């Protein structure tokens, strides 16, 4: 029996343009220091100044390591609802006066009464109305809005109970989104229960709670995501050594996930996030789109640039769709650009054909949407369309790179899913083990 509920139809994933998006935040991360640091898999030289860096749903506190060591947490002292009503009445809105009795301990009250009274807590699309310096659960102080997506809003918060800082995902107030949020909580709880590895490379869920009918998920605070890191270096690509260290950690995360029958379904640079500024440790995030090997979703899954052919063509898939995505990410890391960047699935398929050749007949026989491979332009070597100008065979694209890196990518980017390398096998691959061949 499956450990998880039946998967849901997937949320539409916002497409990313082929060229770098002008909507991405500017970042102040010392990419060169990380790229040039090859002797230690964990340590990277610190940047010359403390930086306030934005990323998709994660942000790094502006404190030095010495400050973090010297300053011990100073939790706030909790007060009771009755005392809060007596002492803090001027700060409480009419809504708060009614809901305050639902809490045994209160640590933080946020803004003045007038500001809170005039605000609308949920907009017409179900998003929570974020107000900086306001509270969540009379405990968390909202410090900054970090990002917003189809699922909801991510904010950076200070926990006044523990004096720690976290990232909190506030899910939209709709039944459909709520189910996705509950699923992510269940998956992360399963990981916490079943994975006995402090270095699992999977994002840590700290807590979850409901506030004004919004599901809120508390996560550890991370820093910049891989896409923004590559962007910071002007899409020149990162060093092969750094790419290897990142790939190793993603493989570790996928190994744990796949052993439990969980398919991530959205491995991409935006969901690979550095743990600390200017260090190479990463976490795999966003498990809201997962499914299981027993209960698969045949709707819209995986971001288009990283979508496996079996998903596009609609034939049976398994955990190796994550491996396909990882292979695409590896190429993007070292070249700076997505391997397959078509505007639609037909363009993606044509680029795949141009890069790795025609699919085996067995694949076509299994595919429900094999017609996608039968249009007049869909044949190997076609260069008559704009989206195929840069689609070249893999050996040509990666010419000059470590031969073991090329072999690793070839083991991931394979038409037949059962011939792809597994996460466990990937960890034993010569490139991952540091055996160089050129």
From TrEMBL:
Q: Which residues form the Protein kinase domain?
A: 140-432
Stored Gene3D superfamilies: DYRK (3.30.10.30), Phosphorylase Kinase, domain 1 (3.30.200.20), Transferase(Phosphotransferase) domain 1 (1.10.510.10)
According to the record, the residues making up region (Disordered) are 36-56
EC annotation from Swiss-Prot or TrEMBL: 2.7.12.1
One Pfam family, please name it.
Pkinase
Q: Name one GO cellular component term.
A: cytoplasm
The record ties this protein, via InterPro entries, to:
DYRK, Kinase-like_dom_sf, Prot_kinase_dom, Protein_kinase_ATP_BS, Ser/Thr_kinase_AS, Ser_Thr_dual-spec_kinase
What is a single molecular function from GO for this protein?
protein serine/threonine kinase activity
The reactions it catalyses are:
L-seryl-[protein] + ATP = O-phospho-L-seryl-[protein] + ADP + H(+); L-tyrosyl-[protein] + ATP = O-phospho-L-tyrosyl-[protein] + ADP + H(+); L-threonyl-[protein] + ATP = O-phospho-L-threonyl-[protein] + ADP + H(+)
**What SUPFAM superfamilies is this protein classified in?**
Protein kinase-like (PK-like) (SSF56112)
Q: Keyword set for this entry?
A: ATP-binding, Kinase, Nucleotide-binding, Serine/threonine-protein kinase, Transferase
- Residues that hold ATP according to the record: 179
- PANTHER family, per this entry? DUAL SPECIFICITY PROTEIN KINASE, DUAL SPECIFICITY TYROSINE-PHOSPHORYLATION-REGULATED KINASE 4
Sequence similarity = Belongs to the protein kinase superfamily. CMGC Ser/Thr protein kinase family. MNB/DYRK subfamily.
Tell me what this protein is called: dual-specificity kinase
Its ancestry begins with: Eukaryota, Sar, Alveolata, Ciliophora, Postciliodesmatophora
